[in-house]
Specification:
By secondary structure, the protein is an alpha+beta fold. It has two helices and six strands. The protein is globular, with a radius of gyration of 17 Å.
Length: about 120
C-alpha cells in the first residue's frame, strides 16, 4: 500500500524529527522518501506551557529522520496563545528553561539509578 502526501508546496508544516526537534516552516519541495526543503524554518522549543522559536531559515530535512509531519493551522495556533494554553517567551528565556528542565530530568534519572545500586 502506497501513501501519498497531499500537502501543497506553500503550506506551513510542523516536522518532528527522530531526535525530538520540532521544525516549523513553509514546505517548498519534497520527494517520495520524505526528503524535504523548508523555507523560513524555525525550531520550536517547548518547555511545559512556554515556547520559543529559534530561526533556522532555509532548511533541508533528510526523510529518514522524519517521524511525523503535518500542516499547521495558523488560526488554531493563535487561539492557543490567546487562551494562554501556550505562551511565547523570548529565545534566551526558553533556552534557560530548557537547560533547567534537562538538568532536573538528569538529576531525577541519577536518583533513580542510585536507588537501584543500593
Amino acid at each position: 500500500m502506497q501513501t501519498t502526501m497531499s500537502l501543497k508546496t506553500t503550506d506551513r508544516v510542523m516536522v518532528i524529527l527522530r531526535d525530538g526537534k520540532k521544525l516549523i516552516g513553509t514546505l517548498r519541495s519534497y520527494d517520495q522518501f520524505a526528503n524535504m526543503v523548508l523555507e523560513d524554518t524555525v525550531e520550536r522549543i517547548v518547555v511545559e506551557k512556554n515556547f520559543g522559536d529559534f530561526l533556522l531559515g532555509l532548511y533541508m530535512v533528510r526523510g529518514e529522520n522524519v517521524v511525523l509531519m503535518g500542516e499547521i493551522d495558523d488560526e488554531l495556533e493563535q487561539q492557543m496563545e490567546q487562551r494562554e494554553l501556550l505562551k511565547r517567551v523570548s529565545l534566551p528565556q526558553i533556552l534557560q528553561e530548557q537547560k533547567e528542565y534537562k538538568e532536573a530530568q538528569m538529576a531525577l534519572l541519577a536518583s533513580r539509578e542510585s536507588a537501584f545500586d543500593t
